[in-house]
Amino acid sequence: MWTKRLSILSTVVLGFALALPGYVGAQNYPSSVKELVASTRKQVKWIDMAAFKVAFDRKEAGVIVDVREPVEYAAGHVPGAVNVPRGVVEFNIWEYVGFPDKTDMNKQLTLYCKTGGRCTLAAKSLQDLGLTNVTAVVMTFEAWQKAGYPVVKGED
Question: What's the pTM?
Answer without folding.
Answer: 0.82
